[in-house]
Specification:
By secondary structure, the protein is an alpha/beta fold. It has helices spanning 17-28, 40-52, 67-81, 104-133, 154-174, 201-206, 216-228, 239-249, 251-265; strands spanning 8-12, 32-37, 56-61, 86-89, 136-141, 179-186, 189-190, 214-215, 233-236. The longest helix is centred in the middle third of the chain and has 30 residues, at 104-133. Bound molecules: NADPH dihydro-nicotinamide-adenine-dinucleotide phosphate.
Length: 269
Amino acid sequence: MRSLEGKVVLITGASSGFGEEVAVLFAQEGCKLVLAARRMDRLQALAAKIQDNGGEAIAIPVDVVNLVDIQNMVESTIDLYGQIDILFNNAGIGRVDWFENFSAERDIQMLVHVNLISLMQVTHAVLPHMLKRGEGHIINMSSVAGLIPAPLITTYAASKHGVRAFTDALRREVTPLGITISGIYPGPAKTEFGSHIGKNEAYAATKNIVRSRMTSEYVASRVLDVALRPRRSLIIPWHYRIAFAFEMLFPVMMDWFSYAFSKINHKIK
Ligand code: NDP
């Protein structure tokens, strides 16, 4: 197990949920935290909490769809600390509904931008600094939706599959250069995420399938574990590893389950 003492950790989406919890855990390990998101009040409160407990953290307002914000975030971090040891690419948004109900701009364009394009652009801005030192760890937040495509989360699944492909491709490219790349694939968890994915009739239908949700504290503890004991991927909870194996081995059977779900729940308006 490696020590994280003194490591500089940049976290996108640090204002709530997994990002916020992970920041607290990294701070307890002695890391220097750079907290990025749009809600500055939340970031400042988190930075103050970390500082009150003897840790080191700064808050930077960043909208990840804005390239200038991304560049400022990375330059400010390098100016202040001279390096980035760990990047936790975590900012993300979701939407649960039948595809025809999605808005072309918010639910397709913006969602793919935040979840995939911005994650790649943040990585693109950080990677040269890691390559120069020949070390660094990039932890990308995907989802089980990045392993198993499903009805109602078409765009989200596409974005998170993109994150998986990018994560795996980049790992194959930069591992020989000293950079570690990990993908995180959590199942449903209790965070603010659930409050802005669209609480509609379609979402209600998923309640019969998603019966339990992990806490963000648990997910954060597992992300910290990946930083302490780097590995290529983490799928949590464990039973999604079985579901993913099914998806790989019996995709037609997974199609049938999905058809049955859609046939019962999809009401054309
Ligand atoms: P939250 O909604 O609590 O957190 C999302 C974070 O992303 C917030 O800090 C938000 O900050 C930030 N964010 C969103 N849009 C932007 C933007 N344009 N620019 C900068 N920051 C942005 O949800 P979670 O903690 O649950 O989600 C974190 C990640 O985990 C996401 O990538 C999500 O897809 C993934 N995930 C979540 C699961 C769940 O069930 N909760 C399951 C699997 C994966 P702000 O609004 O202040 O900008």
